[in-house]
Amino acid sequence: MARLLVVDDQKSICEMLEIVLRKEGHRVETVCGLEMARKRLQSGIYDIVVTDIRLPDGSGLDVLQQVRETYPETLVIMITAYASVDSAVRALNLGAFRYILKTANFVEELRLTVDRAVEERALRQENRALKRELRKGLENLLGDSLRMKTVKELVATVAPTNSTILITGESGTGKELVARAIHAASGRHDRPFVSINCGAFPETLLESELFGYIKGAFTGAAANRKGLFEYADTGTLFLDEIAEMSLAMQVKLLRVLQERLVRPVGTTEEVPIDVRLLAATNKNLQQRVPEGLFREDLYYRISVIPIELPPLRERCEDIPMLALHFLSKFARTMDRPIHKIDAQAMKCLERYDWPGNVRELENALERAVALEKHEEITAGTLPDHVTRFVPRVSIPEGGVNLEQHVGEIERRYIQTALQQAGGVRTRAAGLLGMSYRSFRHYAKKYKL
Ligand SMILES: Nc1ncnc2c1ncn2[C@@H]1O[C@H](COP(=O)(O)OP(=O)(O)OP(=O)(O)O)[C@@H](O)[C@H]1O
Ligand SMILES: [Mg+2]
Q1: Which residues line ligand 1 (CB under 6 A)?
Q2: Per residue in 120-150, pLDDT tens?
Q3: What band does 40 get if pLDDT is binned at 50, 70 and 90?
């Protein structure tokens, strides 16, 4: 059912359209002129507006314009007895949905067009809802670095599919966050998201957790219990730390993935399940295959689409925005009036190599907000190992020629800056934070 407003100066046409469209199950109101149409549009919301172009007190194009301005989602169908290319073009340019001539069978044509408009509206609404979900899922995933942008694009692409996805990355890089983002951006977003840490359960317990059991299946099984696969039915199951799963469990998991059936411990009966599986690990699974620690068939089954999260030290440009995000989060929860990070503290944060990745950065800011006496975060409240950190370099056994080494690095930077600046030297100098004169000096030195 749609809410319709029909605007036509001929009463007979209004009445005819009202009858036909009501029969289709729509709620229809009719008015005879521009002013009346304006009033109705101010007080009510319509899904579809049908308007004649020639009105006694103005033009249907004005109705169209007002609808476009105030209710951009409402579709407008123009009808006219006087065909004119000019008005048709103007109407369509102003965003009319369709333009129909009042020919002999125009009522039938209008009926079909209204049908199509109803479909179109539903489609647009659905698209908007999908986009909203996608945004909501991705919103929590911060980072503008190229590496994070690539991750986010991948998440947006694979989320709506039903594919199994393997999320890899060092500890604290955001694997669980990505799993949640995929679920939130998928068609299953209003269904359960169930997460289990495979490393936290001994083998037999993991099996009954995942598949459930029936009363008497083993000592202590006092009643039937559903497994997580069943809890996650029609939703998403996230298997965290999948590398920790025993080989025996891996066989059972592979079967579930192939057959889409689970068998609760103690039964022979299998239960069909519809679960989207996401898995994560901070181990190198591929390497575990030849070591005999991870089954090759399962590895291929779950790694169809791998998403690799970069360690924070490889996307240092994201550190300031993440740090400020965590600052505002903890300042809010701890009710502290701190809104800034001073330059020196920020430099320390950017220089440190964050082995614990985003989680470590988050913890450092929580601590800093709790300890800070000033109005901005200062280096004094950051952990010592962060402020004292000196980026490590490795010196080979035979020693290193520092001057030559530094020269080589200089040369590469000058060369890359030139390339990136498309050969424009002033721009290349800007990229390296030096004056045009210094740049010229280096370029000459390295004959570039
Ligand atoms: N890109 C990001 N934007 C915002 N917050 C992030 C991002 N990545 C990680 N975090 C935050 O860092 C913390 C750690 O993330 P998460 O638990 O997803 O990491 P993980 O890779 O699953 O770690 P582990 O391997 O230790 O389980 C969380 O609080 C998460 O919200
Ligand atoms: Mg995790």
Answers
A1: 141-143, 169, 171-177, 282, 358-359, 362
A2: 988 888 778 777 766 677 888 999 999 999 9
A3: very high
- The domain 314-387: what is its CATH number? 1.10.8.60
Neighbours of 277 (CB within 10 A): 21
Residue located nearest, by CA, to atom 12 of ligand 1: 359
pLDDT in tens, 185-204: 898 988 899 999 999 988 88
For the domain spanning 3-127, the CATH number is: 3.40.50.2300
Please report which helix (H) or strand (E) contains residue 127, including its range.
helix 106-139
Per-residue confidence band for 81, with pLDDT thresholds at 50, 70 and 90:
confident
Q: Which helix (H) or strand (E) holds 280?
A: strand 276-281
| Topology given in CATH for the domain delimited by 140-308 | Rossmann fold (3.40.50)
Q: Output the CA 251–ligand 2 centroid distance in Å.
A: 23
Our mutation pick for probing the ligand 1 site, out of 144, 166, 170, 177, counting the most ligand atoms within 8 A of Cβ, is 177
Ligand 1 centroid–CA 136 distance in Å is 17
Best residue among 319, 358, 363, 366 to mutate for probing ligand 1's pocket (most ligand atoms within 8 Å of CB) is 358
Angle at 297 between CA 291 and CA 302, to 5 degrees: 100
Number of other residues whose CB lies within 10 A of the CB of residue 97: 21
